[in-house]
Write a structure and sequence with these properties.
This protein starts with 6 loop residues before the first strand and ends in a 7-residue tail after the last helix. Helix 4 packs antiparallel against helix 5 and helix 5 crosses helix 7. By secondary structure, the protein is an alpha/beta fold. The C terminus is likely disordered. Strands 1-2-5-3-4 form a 5-stranded mixed sheet, sandwiched between helices. The chain has a domain of 120 residues: Alpha-Beta Complex (Protein-Tyrosine Phosphatase, Chain A). The protein contains 7 helices and 5 strands, in the order E-E-H-E-H-E-H-E-H-H-H-H.
Length: 174
């Protein structure tokens, strides 16, 4: 079992955003994928939502007994429709037992924005704080991600630095 390198537990034990299990792109390693999927299962994940443009990893989720949902997102800049599709799915699935993991490939800006939008929608969490926590956990927070949730990118960066210096791993543990 291996904790993914870039993971943010937006809601501990319920919702996490991460890079593709096993790593993204050319750095993908099947042994790492297996260990990171095991980590997710040990943490109670029952559903994996993939926002990768391709269907990579889907057979590995099926082999591990995980449910999955695939919504291809080419880029965060083009993610508004996917965000609108996935928010109701998250609301519905997070009412059930178990946890949900959302991943992109190497680019984690869309999944950070999606989880931030969910936290704001469901719990009125300040998107600046949520994106700061996502960045502190190692996820990419880009100007497109900030724009997708309606905040100023320049305001996210100081919060990310503050969260990183005060959390000491708080946002990546379950």
């Amino acid at each position: 079992m291996q904790q993914p390198k870039r993971i943010w537990w937006a809601r501990p034990r319920k919702l996490c955003a991460l890079e593709r299990p096993g790593g993204g792109g050319r750095s993908h390693r099947p042994a790492r994928r297996e260990a990171e999927i095991e980590y997710l299962i040990e943490r109670g994940v029952r559903l994996v939502i993939s926002t990768m443009p391709t269907r990579h990893n889907i057979p590995a989720y099926e082999d591990a007994g995980l449910d999955w949902h695939h919504v291809p997102v080419e880029s965060c800049a083009e993610g508004a429709d996917a965000l609108e599709e996935l928010l109701p799915l998250l609301r519905r699935e997070l009412r059930r037992g178990g946890a949900v993991a959302v991943h992109g490939n190497r680019h984690t800006d869309f999944v950070a924005a999606l989880c931030t939008a969910y936290l704001h929608d469901r719990y009125e969490r300040d998107p600046l704080d949520a994106l700061g926590d996502a960045a502190a956990a190692g996820l990419d927070v880009t100007p497109d991600a900030a724009s997708l949730v309606g905040v100023d990118y320049e305001a996210v960066q100081p919060r990310a630095r503050i969260a990183a210096s005060t959390s000491s791993g708080r946002s990546v543990t379950t």
